């Protein structure tokens, strides 16, 4: 039985969206390691991020779907 994920991730550079999706998909698309991915979602990275630094946000899929309905 396959479960549906509740969350996906969105990668930002400043206010621009770089990519989004499940963790493994982002790792493959961006050609990064799993440890780099976890660094991007860490609260320390978010707190210390400059305007052009990559950060990741964990987002509920339901929020993504709602924002898509908005457009």
Describe this structure in words.
The protein has 71 residues and is α+β, with helices and mostly antiparallel strands. It has one domain (13-70). The protein has four helices and three strands, in the order E-E-H-H-H-E-H. It has helices spanning 23-30, 34-40, 43-48, 61-70; strands at residues 7-13, 16-21, 54-60. Strands 2-1-3 form a three-stranded antiparallel beta sheet. Strand 1 and strand 2 (16-21) form a beta hairpin. The longest helix has 10 residues, at 61-70. It is globular, with a radius of gyration of 13 Å. The mean pLDDT is 88.
Task: Describe the structure in brief.
By secondary structure, the chain is an alpha+beta fold.
Question: Which stretches of 5+ consecutive residues score pLDDT under 50?
Answer: none
The average pLDDT value, as a whole number, equals: 88
Q: Total strand count, please?
A: 3
Radius of gyration based on Cα positions: 13 Å
Order of helices and strands: EEHHHEH
- The percent range for strand residues is 25-35%
Structural class: alpha+beta
Query: How are the strands ordered across the major sheet?
Result: 2-1-3
Distance between the termini: 33 Å
What layout of secondary structure does this protein have?
Layout: E1 7-13, E2 16-21, H1 23-30, H2 34-40, H3 43-48, E3 54-60, H4 61-70
Antiparallel strand pairs: 1-2, 1-3
Descriptive tags:
single chain, alpha+beta, three-stranded antiparallel beta sheet, 4 helices, 3 strands
């Amino acid at each position: 039985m396959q479960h549906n994920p509740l969350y996906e991730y969105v990668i930002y550079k400043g206010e621009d969206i770089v990519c989004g999706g499940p963790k493994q998909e982002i790792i493959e698309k961006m050609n990064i390691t799993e440890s780099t991915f976890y660094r991007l979602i860490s609260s320390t990275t978010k707190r210390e991020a400059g305007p052009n630094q990559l950060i990741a946000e964990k987002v509920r899929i339901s929020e993504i779907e709602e924002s898509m309905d908005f457009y």
